[in-house]
Amino acid sequence: MATVELRFSALPEHVRTARLVAAAVARRAGVDEAVLDEVRLAVGEACTRAVGLHRSSGVSAPVRVALIEEEKKFSIEVGDEAPRSTGAGSATAAGHGATTGGPDEAAAESDDEMGLAVISGLVDDVEVSTSAAGGVIRMSWPTTPAPALS
Fold first, then answer.
1. Pairing of strands 90-91, 73-80
2. What span, in angstroms and rounded, lies between the C-alpha atoms of 74 and 27?
3. Distant-in-sequence, close-in-space partners of 60: CB < 8 Å, separation ≥ 6
4. What is the H or E stretch that residue 49 is in?
5. pLDDT score, position 86
6. What are the φ and ψ backbone dihedral angles of 16, each rounded to 5 degrees?
7. Sheet with 63-69: strands ordered across
8. Which helix (H) or strand (E) element contains residue 103?
9. Which parts of the chain register pLDDT below 50?
10. In whole angstroms, how far apart are CA 121 and each of 42, 82, 129?
11. What is the pLDDT of residue 137?
12. Residue 130 CB neighbours (<10 A)
């Protein structure tokens, strides 16, 4: 099992780099060429979401991206350290906790849910987990082994 880890400042301009690295590592891992655009888009959404959560929460820690090559699948984990309300636990892309703040927080929650919906539409195998210390989006795609050279 090979893992590539990225950490970047929560700035929107770094999301493009994360997308490009994820697509390159996915290609090398054996993800079908036809799916690479979906990988790029899903990673972009997940990283944009993490950047937004960090910026709105005033978190200075970097956004974490782990690219994990396993025997028959390729996984990407995008982690943030934005604090969540104490009622948060594991969540699916369809639901999150209720919004209790003002209009800005409601808009951020709406953007968050939209981003999760986009990711769910792009990735068949997606898991979202949150805790008081932050959250992780884990996405996986099947791989095909590279043909043997003769």
1. unpaired
2. 10
3. 10, 54
4. helix 36-57
5. 53
6. -60, -45
7. 2-8, 63-69, 73-80, 134-142, 125-131, 90-91
8. helix 103-122
9. 87-102
10. 9, 24, 18
11. 96
12. 21
In the chain, what are the domains? 2-142 (3.30.565.10)
Residue 84 has a pLDDT of 81
| Rg of the chain in Å (alpha carbons) | 16
Threshold 0.70, pTM exceeds: yes
CA distance 150 to 128: 42
pLDDT of residue 45: 95
In the numeric block, the tokens 């997940």 are attached to: 46
Report the sign of the C-alpha dihedral through residues 96, 92, 86, 15, in that order: negative
State residue 67's pLDDT score.
Answer: 97
